[in-house]
Amino acid sequence: MASVLILGATSTIARALAAEFGRHRYDLTLAGRDREEMDALAADLAIRYGVEARVRCFDALAFETHQPDLESWLSEEPDSIVGAVVCFGYLGDHAAAKTDFAEARRILDTNFTGCMSALNIIANHFERRRSGFICAVSSVAGDRGRQSNYLYGAAKAGLSVYLQGLRNRLFPSRVRVVTIKPGFVDTPMTFGRPGLFLVASPEYVARSIFKAIQRGKDVAYIPWFWRPIMFTARMIPEWLFKRPRL
Ligand SMILES: NC(=O)c1ccc[n+]([C@@H]2O[C@H](COP(=O)([O-])OP(=O)(O)OC[C@H]3O[C@@H](n4cnc5c(N)ncnc54)[C@H](OP(=O)(O)O)[C@@H]3O)[C@@H](O)[C@H]2O)c1
Question: Is residue 149 part of a domain?
Fold first, then answer.
């Protein structure tokens, strides 16, 4: 059976997405930091959908482990892993990060460097094999910098541009690269944060990610209306955009 690797498998969006893949009869490799949570998730997927779910330990910030671990997982199932989805992320404490370099670095390293490090290895594997898909959850926050979250936004902007380049590179190898740009989603990442609007459920986002992968989309805004919203936001001239507290 075809199998999908999910990095950051304990994220709320990843859990809903794993269920979506399970419902469509994909086996799963769940990779993340919390082994106990992933074991429970794997058991649930096996009972609910009759699929096989393997669990692997993965920390986006343990860069030195990425190459040996990912290469070994991919070589264990050289043909059956048909795709990889990157779901981990870290919103962080933006106010603290203005003065605390360690927090600023964690935001950048989790959302950008960690994704890039893992995806470089996966991309090389799929490119050699000339098949597969890569999907990563970026964010509308990367479309325009705002004072309330520009470190997270900068990391997601970097991730979106990285994915654009990867898509261009892998096109001749028939490896698809899908960029997901959700707006606000109801998960622990946003829980209790002020100023949220048009909040989507993780289940809706997971169904939309699955469809975007199946349809071979390049970039999917989720829900769709974030595309015109962010288009409009990008069109506002900088002399005006810099004034309000956003
Ligand atoms: N929620 C939103 O409104 C929203 C909007 C746009 C984009 N996104 C993006 O969607 C993705 C999923 O977010 P979510 O809302 O589902 O968040 P979530 O439920 O808060 O989950 C965040 C996940 O990231 C994992 N993580 C953090 N640092 C990690 C590290 N160093 N190594 C491995 N895993 C790490 C956490 O693992 P542990 O369980 O081990 O802590 C957790 O599974 C993220 O990329 C996020 O940036 C979210």
Answer: yes
Instruction: State whether residue 223 is helix, strand or coil.
Output: coil
60 lines ligand 1 (CB under 6 A): yes
Give me the number of domains the chain comprises.
Answer: 1
Which of the pair, 39 or 193, is modelled with greater confidence? Answer: 39
* Distance in angstroms (rounded) separating the CA atoms of residues 129 and 135: 17
Q: Residue for token digits 């370099």? A: 101
In a domain, 246, yes or no: no
90 is catalytic: no
Cα-to-centroid distance, 138 and ligand 1 (Å) = 11
Does residue 86 belong to any structural domain of this protein? yes
Is residue 78 predicted with pLDDT exceeding 80? Answer: no
pLDDT value for 77:
80
Separation of 6 CA from ligand 1 center, angstroms? 12
Residue nearest atom 12 in ligand 1 by C-alpha distance: 87
In a domain, 166, yes or no: yes
Q: Residue 90 in 3-state DSSP?
A: coil
Q: Is the CB of 34 under 6 A from ligand 1?
A: yes
